[in-house]
Design a protein that fits this description.
Order of helices and strands: HEHEEHHEEHHHEEHHEEHEE
Shape: elongated
CATH topology of the largest domain: CBS-domain
Oligomer: single chain
Distance between the termini: 44 Å
Strand content: 25-35%
CATH class of the largest domain: Alpha Beta
Keywords: CBS domain
Largest sheet: 4 strands, mixed
CATH superfamily of the largest domain: CBS-domain
Number of domains: 2
Structural class: alpha/beta
Helix content: 25-40%
Radius of gyration: 25 Å
InterPro entries: BON_dom, CBS_dom, CBS_dom_sf, Diverse_CBS-Domain, UCP036990_CBS_BON
CATH architecture of the largest domain: Roll
Protein name: CBS domain-containing protein
Length: about 240
């Protein structure tokens, strides 16, 4: 069974409101030992996320008065962020003069649900270019946060648990496909598949299914086959 966001997310998450001031945000980040905080409304609904990156713009642009020879390059003044509508370019220098969470936050917040699969959350982070996701319930209220570090917990599955899941896949294959004689060994999350199958495509499919098992780091496919149907020429050619 695949883990869900609820299995690995952090609960009891500290948050700030739109009116929370800059120094108060910094203090909360340091006290909580986190790199970002969700910004919520009076009903606990998620409005955005304020991060260390948002706060550090103020330091980067501090020395930009008329008497200074320094002015950050354009790539530093503009920040690109993926959104559902495409690429959003934000003015980092504008955030440098912001004083509240509402002015500093990245919004709208990209969120996930507690019942979402961990792999779905990982893909969402990668696709949207974010390091963490607020987790909201059906009503849109904040119930937790999930970070890239939290996602790594799925790889802490012990080898015995992984081996049992792999054997289920092998048993199912053997019961449905003739000529299947496969064994598996698991060490530190790496699965070595040995034995033989009639068609090469059968072994290819099994290796792909095993690689999707939670906690599997890699698959060492040593299976042999009798018919290489993956390289058979098209009929009529």
């Amino acid at each position: 069974m695949r883990s869900t966001v609820a299995d690995v997310m952090t609960t009891g998450v500290a948050s700030v409101t739109e009116n929370t001031g800059y120094k108060e945000i910094v203090q909360a980040l340091l006290e909580q030992g986190v790199s970002a905080l969700p910004v919520v409304d009076a009903d606990g609904g998620i409005l955005g996320v304020v991060s260390e990156e948002d706060l550090l713009h103020k330091e980067e642009f501090k020395d930009t008065d008329h008497d200074s020879n320094y002015w950050p390059p354009l790539r530093a003044r503009l920040r690109s962020r993926l959104t559902g509508a495409g690429v959003l370019v934000e003015r980092a220098d504008e955030k440098a003069v912001a004083t509240t969470a509402g002015q500093l936050m990245t919004h709208p917040a990209i969120t996930t649900r507690p019942d979402a699969a961990v792999v779905e959350a990982a893909r969402l982070m990668e696709r949207r270019g974010v390091k963490r996701l607020p987790v909201v319930d059906a009503a849109g209220a904040l119930v937790g946060m999930i970070s890239r570090r939290d996602l790594l917990r799925v790889f802490l599955q012990n080898d015995d648990t992984i081996a049992a899941a792999v054997q289920e896949e092998i048993d199912h294959l053997a019961a449905t496909v003739q000529g299947t004689d496969i064994a598996a060994a698991v060490k530190d999350g790496t699965v070595a598949l040995t034995g033989s199958v009639h068609h090469r495509s059968t072994g290819h499919t099994l290796a792909r299914l095993v690689n999707r098992i939670e906690g599997v780091v890699s698959v060492d496919n040593r299976m042999t086959w009798h018919v290489d149907d993956l390289l058979m020429p098209y009929a009529g050619l």
